[in-house]
TrEMBL record:
It comes from Gracilariopsis chorda. Keywords: Kinase, Transferase. The keyword Phosphoprotein does not apply. Residues 63-261 form the Protein kinase domain. This is Serine/threonine-protein kinase shk2.
Length: 261
């Protein structure tokens, strides 16, 4: 057996407070992959004493993780490690041991995002991440391929906010949102983590797993805490307007460790 990854999983508790839920553990046994949960924090210092044989994890079925590739609906693209490409893969750490409908819908989330991205591929915009196509293996979509960008807005703010032209950033994000709305979509998860910068320092919107046509249900993907309206269940223009306002507030409140405020 081999440990692949551990990750702390959090949930939204009472009064909107984020609290620790469990540690998800991903490991392999020969060619099979398993995931389990431990109801405490498992730190790096604990890993050597972690007995994988005693975890009794749940085997991951790839049919629950990856959608089938349809040549008439999706674009198959081949990329090499040397290409400047980011490959987005399903977060299998959310495939917990608890049997629930949400756990087995990861393939649907990925399929819906691929559908949106195929439309964006046909209608590109400089403030929308450039989608290249799907990585396909054995008839399954195992990754969504995008142009690789340098850093997120949050990373830039945390590093040196002086490098952020706040007014220009908000205007660029707004243009990206307007492009989505013109196509009939709402992003529904605009946050500092979902805005990145390209090589020309242009802000681009990323992460379209919450992007749906206006009026469609959102399912389990309902935005980022602090940047989304509470209780949202459908894709709405108001979700993006609210998030853009919160993003502007976020940028207006930051202090500049590089010497300016």
């Amino acid at each position: 057996m081999k440990l692949l990854k551990t990750e702390f999983i959090y949930e939204l508790g009472e009064e909107g407070v984020v609290k620790f839920s469990f540690t998800a553990v991903l490991y392999t046994d020969q060619e099979k992959v398993f995931v389990t949960t431990i109801p405490r924090r498992v730190y790096d210092s604990d890993l050597q004493s972690l007995d994988l044989h005693a975890l009794n994890g749940r085997e991951i079925d790839r049919n629950d993780i990856y959608p089938r590739f349809d040549v008439d609906s999706f674009t198959n693209v081949s990329v090499s490690p040397r290409d400047k490409v980011y490959i987005k893969r399903p977060n299998v750490m959310m495939y917990t041991c608890e049997e629930s409908e949400e756990d087995t819908q990861l393939w649907k989330v990925m399929r819906e995002e691929a559908k949106v991205c195929e439309i964006l591929r046909q209608s590109p915009h400089p403030n929308i991440a450039k989608y290249l196509g799907c990585e396909v293996k054995d008839g399954y979509i195992v990754g969504l391929c995008f142009e690789r960008y340098s850093e997120t807005l949050r990373e830039r703010v945390d590093g040196c906010p002086r490098k952020v032209d706040r007014a220009s950033c908000i205007q660029s994000v707004k243009k990206g949102i307007q492009h989505l709305h013109a196509l009939g979509f709402c992003h529904n998860d605009i946050s500092p983590d979902n805005v990145m910068f390209d090589g020309c320092n242009t802000p681009v919107l990323i992460d379209f797993d919450s992007c749906r046509r206006e009026g469609e249900p959102l399912g389990s993907k309902t935005g980022t805490l602090g940047f989304s309206r509470t209780g949202i269940v459908t894709s709405e223009v108001e979700n993006d307007i609210f998030a853009l306002q919160k993003l502007e507030e976020y940028l207006n409140l930051i202090n500049d460790p590089c010497g300016k405020q």
